[in-house]
Amino acid sequence: MASFKITGGRKLKGELIPQGAKNEALQILCAVLLTKEPVIIHNIPNIRDVNKLMELLEDMGVKRSKMGDGVYKFEADDVSFDYFETQEYKDKAAELRGSVMLLGPMLGRFGRGKAPKPGGDKIGRRPLDTHFIGFQKLGAEFSYDAGDSFYSIDGSKMKGSYIWMEEISVTGTANVLMAAVLTEGTTTIYNAACEPYLQQLCKMLNSMGAKISGVGSNLLTIEGVTELFGCEHTMLPDMIEIGSFIGLAAMTGSEITIKNCRIPELGIIPDTFRKLGIEMEFRGDDIHIPAQSNYKISTLIDGSILTVYDAPWPGFTPDLISIILVTAIQAKGTVLIHQKMFESRLFFTDKLIDMGAQIILCDPHRATVIGLNREYNLRGIRMTSPDIRAGVALLIAALSADGTSIIDNIEQIDRGYQNIDTRLNAIGAEIVRV
Ligand SMILES: CC(=O)N[C@H]1[C@@H](OP(=O)(O)OP(=O)(O)OC[C@H]2O[C@@H](n3ccc(=O)[nH]c3=O)[C@H](O)[C@@H]2O)O[C@H](CO)[C@@H](O)[C@@H]1O
Ligand SMILES: C=C(OP(=O)(O)O)C(=O)O
């Protein structure tokens, strides 16, 4: 288990370039299985989860060649189905959440699919029912081996159908969509998730020859086609990383410019940080955050306390709730943070309280942050990163704190943030990987 040793209190200054989006990459990489032709993907982040998924693809016979920095060509012309029965596949695929999205393409192209219960953050129950009910509505038959935590699906009799998704699930929508594009007939997915990750996936699939309409809405209509072709796709910058950098700049009182943000794709993320009083300027496609000595949380029009809560897109993404929470610690004022989707994602606040933050954890979903307005600083402590976003929230807290902090289990952070220590050190942070 690796750790970060952080010397807090340094002001950062400079430019940060966001990596390609982790959660988009996981969908897009699964989609390469849908064609035997070459697919070229640009802006692939060099992070643990994505590297593991690329390894898995290679293990199952997908040819991968590096064409440049973050650019790879994939060719799934000879996929080995035997591999899906191996213990190695079960173990490797169980390490990341994104592996579950291999099922949709397998069903669409080969009429059958197998996958273990996926990994990912332990942030509460993470049901997969939406995925399997969606496949069943297409006519697939599914069985679950509880002893082995292994799903097997027979999709040989799939036909386009009307699917009302039980939940607005990001990976669930991607999975059913990828099965439907190569399924005969018309499939309608209502109550679909429409995060930018999914919009990007739809654009990629359409460029491969799929017929998807309603992209960006919660109603997708898919006319099944018999074959998909090669394409070239570029990943969006990671909106969660961009949000994390905005929070980092505010908490550490630093002047940071985040380059090439694709601002129109960020939805309400910038405005949500502005509600905490954080100033930012859009300079072309860059976001400039000036060094701010103070920032004041706004209230609602009637003067009542601001609430920041997560919701499926175009609402505020749950993956930035931990970052908003930590950023509020040094603001002036009070905010109620409501993490509606996941029930175990706010427990890391006990570490922030140990550092000196004024936070009341009301229940597993809600925390009230009473901003310190920089009247005193957090103090460095030793802590463990429980999940990817809490890990980065703790890193931001540690960078703003007096003294030294140690964050253990940084593998969680490495799942989704590319060389975060090196990139932040380049603009003045002091983080040592130990
Ligand atoms: C690899 C990947 O892409 N992971 C993302 C994906 O996970 P993932 O696709 O696994 O998450 P889902 O969108 O399925 O659901 C997230 C959670 O919210 C709950 N839920 C969802 C919709 C709803 O209307 N009501 C509700 O309660 C679900 O039960 C689940 O616990 O989307 C999540 C929600 O944006 C993000 O946090 C994850 O980073
Ligand atoms: C929860 C997350 O990831 P995963 O779904 O891969 O666990 C995340 O990216 O914040």
TrEMBL record:
Keyword annotations: Cell cycle, Cell division, Cell shape, Cell wall biogenesis/degradation, Cytoplasm, Peptidoglycan synthesis, Transferase
- Report the GO molecular function annotations: UDP-N-acetylglucosamine 1-carboxyvinyltransferase activity
Identify the species of origin. Lacihabitans soyangensis
Cell cycle keyword on record = yes
The record's annotation in PANTHER family points to: UDP-N-ACETYLGLUCOSAMINE 1-CARBOXYVINYLTRANSFERASE
Which superkingdom heads the taxonomic lineage of this protein's source? Bacteria
Record-given protein name:
UDP-N-acetylglucosamine 1-carboxyvinyltransferase
Binding-site list for UDP-N-acetyl-alpha-D-glucosamine:
97, 319, 341
- Its gene name is murA
